[in-house]
Amino acid sequence: FARLLLPHRPLGCTTQYPTLSVRLYRPASWANTEPRRSSSYWDDEHTNAHAFSIMQVISLALLLGCAQASTWSHQAASSIANGTANSHVEGTYTAAYIEHEATSPCGNGVCGKQTLAANAAAYIGYAEEAASEGAGIIVFPEYGLTGFSSYPKSSWISGGYTETIPDPVEESVVPCDDTTGDFDDAPSVVTLSCAARDTGIAIVANLVELADSNIYNCDVAFDEKGFFLAKYRKMNLWGESNMDAPTECTLSTFTALTSTVEGGVTFGLITCADLIYEFPTVDLISSGVVHFVVPVAWDDSMAQMQVMGWAQGFSLAHGVNVVVSNHRTATESGSGAWSSGSTQSYVFAPSNRGDAKVMLAELPLAPAA
Question: How many contiguous H segments (helices) and E segments (strands) does the chain have?
C-alpha cells in the first residue's frame, strides 16, 4: 500500500525538485471522502518518549520502510539543517499543544460569531496555563475555533463562521492595539493577539478566512508580544469540498520567542494533510526551516493513516522538530512533539468529554541531523 511517488505539487506550483516524496497512495475513489469511524480502544494520555500505540507503529513502519529506500533525501535534508543559523546553537525551547474540541453555545443551531467567541475564550485559558508552565509557544488544532462542517460555503459565510483577515505586514501590527479598523471583521484575530500579548506566549491557531467570495482554511500566528506575524492558507485540502484551494503557492514562516532565544526561532507553518505532500513541506525544508507547527483535524479511522506516525516519520526523515495539535472528538486524536524522530511528548485519547489537557514538550534549538 505504501509506495514512492513523484512529488505532488498543487496546480500552479510548477517548481520541480530532483527528489521523491515519501507518502501513501490514496485511491482516486477516496478523493472527496473523509471516513469517520471511531477507534477509541485506547483512552489515556502519555509523555513516555518510548511508548507507541499499535496504530502509530503500523503507520511509522510503513513510512520508515519508504524512507529507507530514499536515504539520500534524508541526507540532503540533514545537510540543509546543518547549514541553518541554528546549527551550532545549544539550548531548548518549550512548546505546548492542546487537543481542544470546538463547541457551540447554541448546540446544533447556527451561531458562528458566538461559537468563535466561546472557543477563543477557551484558548485564552489554555494560553495562560501553558505560559505559567514555561511554554514559549502553543499550537491549537485545525477547526478548533469553528468546528468542522460539510455544509456548503454559503452556510459558512451566512452563519458567521468566517472572518476577513488582513495580510500580515512587514511592520507587524498588534491587532489587540489596532485602532485603524483593519481587524473589525476578524474578532478572533484580535482576541488571539490579546491573549498572546497578555500571557507572553506565541500562538498558532486555525480559522476560516473569507476573501472576496472564497473561503480558506487558514492558520494564523502571533509572537509573544501579540504581533500578527503570519497567515497560511492550506494548500492540500482533504475532504473539504466547501473550502477553496489557494491559487498562489506561498510559503509561510514566522520568527517568535525572541524574548527568550537570541535571534528567535523560525517556524514553518503547515496544516494537516500538508504533511504528506511535497509542497509546501519540502520547499520549507529547502529554505532552511527546521521547526514546524502543524494544526490538524485528522481522524483515526484508518490504521495506516495515523497522524502521529506521519509526523514522527516526517521529523525523522528530515531531521526537524514537529509540533502537532489535533482536534479532539470521538474519532479524532493524536498530537505530539517530535525532534529528529524522537518523541518528546504525545497524547492519544479520542473522546467527546472535553477533558483535554495542555501538553508540553522541550525541543532543541538545533535538531539532531
Answer: 7, 15
**239 CB contacts (<8 Å, ≥6 apart)?**
32, 33, 34
Cell of 263: 535571534
Q: What residues form DSSP beta bridges with 253?
A: 268
* All three cell numbers of 83: 547549514
Lowest-confidence segment of 38-52, 114-128, 298-312 by average pLDDT: 38-52
Neighbours of 134 (CB within 10 A): 13
Beta bridge partners of residue 232, listed in sequence order = 219
pLDDT in tens, 244-296: 999 988 999 999 999 999 999 999 999 999 998 999 999 999 999 999 999 99
Give the type of residue at 334. G
Q: Is 118 exposed, middle or buried (0-12, 13-18, 19+ CB in 10 A)?
A: middle
Query: Amino acid identity, residue 356?
Result: A
Peptide bond into 364 cis (omega under 30): no
What is the rounded distance in angstroms from the CA atom of residue 213 to the CA atom of residue 284?
Answer: 29
* Cα angle for residues 197, 200, 201 (degrees, 5° grid): 100
Long-range contacts, 11-18 (Cβ 8 Å, 24+): 11/245, 11/247, 12/247, 12/248, 12/249, 13/235, 13/249, 13/279, 15/283, 17/278, 17/282, 17/286
Half-sphere exposure (CA, 13 Å, Cβ side) for 262? 6
**HSE of 190 in the Cβ direction (CA atoms, 13 Å)?**
15
Grid-cell match 520568527, residue found: 255
Nearest to 192 by CA among 129, 119, 255, 294: 119
Give the pLDDT confidence of 70-125 residue by residue, as tens digits.
333 433 333 333 334 444 568 999 999 999 999 999 888 899 999 999 999 999 99
At 305, the amino acid letter reads M
Residue type, 327: H
Instruction: Output DSSP code: residue 163.
Output: B
How many CA within 13 A on the CB side of residue 247? Answer: 3
